Amino acid sequence: MRGLLTRPLAVLVASAAGMLAVPWLAAPIAAQDAMSHAAKQQVHTGEALYRAACAACHGADGRGTTQALVGFDVPLPDFTDCNFASREPDADWIAIAHQGGPVRGFSRLMPAFGAALTVEELQSVMDYIRTFCGDDDWPRGELNLPRAQVTEKAYPEDELVVTTVFAVEGAGAWMNEFVYEKRFGALNQWEIAVPFGVRERDTGDWTGGMGDIAVGVKRVLFHSLASGTIFSAAAEIILPTGDEDDGFGAGTAIFEPFVALGQILPADAFVQLQAGAEFPFDRGRAEDEGFWRAVLGKTWTEGRWGRAWSPMVELLGSREFSSGAGAEWDVLPQVQVTLSRRQHVMANIGVRVPLNRRDTRQTELWIYLLWDWFDGRLFEGW
User: Fold this and answer.
1) What is residue 196's three-state secondary structure?
2) Quick check: 298 and 271 in contact, CB under 8 A?
3) Which among 128, 100, 109 has a CA at the least distance from the CA of 39?
4) pTM for the full predicted model
5) Hey, where are the domains in the chain?
6) For 12, how many CA atoms within 13 A lie in the half-sphere containing its CB?
7) Burial category of 207 from C-beta neighbours within 10 Å (exposed 0-12, middle 13-18, buried 19 and up)
């Protein structure tokens, strides 16, 4: 989830490391003095601090200097590459600069500058670094809100997610879903979802199999960091790969368009909305259906830079379009937590409880493990 050493977090990581190669900036106090002097000489304080502290490694143009000049073999990022520079929120960059590389599982070449620079000064550096990406099409990482169990988020992402659902009452079932998401371009994402699992038959024996595979594409239609809003449209084709008789499939292909909205709220709270419909190719096997989903949550951090906890509540509704059909409502309280120091591996656990028609629907335990693979290998950053 939160940048590699070769990406946003590396920005200030290698910047400070480069300072080690410049004797008069070696000590944090000396760096602070130099930065204070530079700030007085220039109107743009962020630029002055960047040139004093970071340009030795990252270059005045943000593209990075050579390994021969910096004296270490840690790859330096290109800040003009919007594909990585836009993905992470400012808080993750500043955490590394303030606390040093190990706070996010990076190299100790990045020293902690919390004693030399204030958070406000580091933020001014970040504001300047953001200018190296000159393409406003790329949504900022602050809009990448925590992933709920069911509701699709609007932000395009590079993730692997494995979800497991256990029935905790009624007939036994243990279903899983493997989701691979790949971002392409500034605004787009494609994904494939492969469900599989085992369930108990009416006869008491168990059967297993693969469910209906879904392939989809998503595009961001609007995003604004100033308003904290991101809005996307998407469409999926659900293929009839599962065994209908054993309850693993619908028996027909289904077209599912939807829209998704993410909104940042004050005090690190957020809301996410999704609405869409399912249109089966064979209406003799499945009905047209509409669905709507809402998530309300808030993120807390252990200390200022530690593990992030995001409790959420999802409200899930659906209704067949056929005459006389009633809506089904579920509530799904849950909590997401970052597991790795890099915060690119996360887990979520929740309970989905039917609010009506409880005689035919079960309470379920939902668990997922998420790996934001753009931010590093699975076992890096712990």
Assistant:
1) strand
2) no
3) 128
4) 0.86
5) 8-132, 141-375
6) 35
7) middle
